[in-house]
Write a structure and sequence with these properties.
Elements: H1 2-8, H2 23-37, E1 42-45, H3 63-91, E2 96-99, H4 113-123
Parallel strand pairs: 1-2
Helix pairs in contact: 2-3, 3-4
Length: 125
């Protein structure tokens, strides 16, 4: 987070660390952003679980590993998008939601079958 703050320099920003796998944690984050800025006009979903535990051969991927990947890369993205979209709709003039996928959404990668599946699902909303 410190690197992002440094890169933004004097730009106005609010930095919140939230576990997007928790639907209950997402809405308070969105409310804080709306309270600070008055609205949300754009959302960029870039959070992703990579590396261990996301790295596993297809035949060896455990239920816990799959849950962690799906909960972060797919469900977390959905939770944040849904919460932000509610505020965008209520504002009346929409907004933009950008989902960052991965090359893994278009071609399988070794030891990343679950990761690639979630990235593809995220790309095709």
């Amino acid at each position: 987070m410190a690197a992002a703050q440094a890169a933004l320099g004097s730009a106005e920003a609010v930095f919140l660390q939230v576990d997007i796998r928790s639907r209950a944690a997402v809405m308070p984050m969105v409310v804080k952003a709306v309270e600070h800025f008055g609205a949300i006009d754009i959302l960029v979903n870039n959070a992703s679980l990579t590396g261990p535990p996301a790295v596993a051969a297809f035949l060896d991927c455990t239920g816990e590993q799959l849950d962690a990947i799906v909960d972060t890369n797919l469900k977390g993205t959905f939770y944040v998008s849904q919460a932000v979209a509610r505020f965008m709709v209520a504002k009346g003039n929409g907004g933009n939601i950008v989902n960052i996928a991965s090359v893994g959404a278009f071609a399988g990668q070794e030891f990343a079958s679950a990761y690639c599946a979630t990235k593809r699902a995220r790309w095709r909303w």
